[in-house]
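Standup notes, protein team

Yesterday: finished cleaning the Exophiala viscosa set.
Today: FAD-binding domain-containing protein structure.
Blockers: none.

Input for FAD-binding domain-containing protein:
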Amino acid sequence: MPERVLICGAGVAGSIVAFYLGKADFQVTVVERSKAEQKAGQGIEIEEPALSVVRHMGVLDTLESVKTGEEGAEFVDQRSRSYGIFKAGGISPTGELELMRGDLTEVLYKAADAHLNVTYLFETTIQSLRQTQDKVIVDLAHRPTRSVKTEEFDLVVGADGVKSRTRQLAMGSPEELNCFKAVGAYTAYFSIPKQDQDWPYSRLCHFPGRKVVWMRPVSKASDVTSVYLIHVGKNVPALSRANAVGDRMKQKEALAELYSGLGWEVPRVIEEMLKAENFYSDELMQVKLQKWSQDRVVLVGDAAWAPTPFTGEGNQLAIMGAHVLAQEISRYRSSAAFDAYEKRLRAYVEDAQNIPLGGYAPYIFVPQTSLGVWVFRTLIYLGSWIVRFIAWRGMPDGSDQQHKEFDLQIEKDETKKAR
């Protein structure tokens, strides 16, 4: 009988693990608390070495067809005056393969679900988990019907994000594990109705008080624009309280107060935010664990090592980590795979979790004072002209050396199959 694996979370990491384990003849069940048709999340990019994984999966052409088409990032001031444009690729905030997270997860879900031995259960959560010597007994709750069924699995993979329920059931609460490391910043993202100026560049505006508003196009045909609010600061009591209890309206009200009185398109953003349905807000936390597995349960992606957006590595690590985990499970076909997975990946992950400039990048790139904002804008202005000059001269900009190397052992697996 094929080994049975439960994957908690149908996001990027969960569906990649499901795809490869389905391909390796495991009997895979994926549970996801959201609805099947629900798309959520921010814009993300895929670059090497994670790009090699989606290429190997055979979904790269599909992903190319659903990328946002964002042509680059434009930095503007409170009067909408541009002071720097960075075309997609290289050092730009816009990657060459820029996608909405919902589109990426849909493509990965469909690729995994194409395997007959992979089953997705949406609007389903893991309620309890009990481990024995040779299996994991799990109670799965179906939210619409409020029914609960008990199933047995050989292995369980927690790919359910920063606040992982799987991690808590298998290892303990975040307080017991002391695994949350606040980075001193808050973020929110949501969609608002699109206007002509929202295409084709994303636009960033910095304000004193360490505040940023970033507006990003979803696609040329879309009727909405994505908005990201970023605030670097450790003392926002109203927002902290609202985040703690998950009260979306209180979160919106706290952000509206925090961003009140600012120029540019902020009044429009705040007005539409208060009506937005796909709203998400939280304090940014890194996850740092002494071990990524407990007996027959293993974690991957943000559940194991959330790096925060300030590293720019979250999506990359989710893709790479899922591939490595599935690779090792396919090789060992037991929980012995978990140590091999962690041995291969931990050093790379810990390096990727380092926030640039000794952890001070958020404070440098999101200034506190009006003078700091002016200095930042001046540097962006000069930097944009340097990039243009380099492009005009046809000189290398160093972007091909910016990716950290990691051996995904894809060729090794292909060699084994050929034999």
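Follow-up from PR in the comments: Residues 328 and 340 are 7 Å apart (CA to CA).
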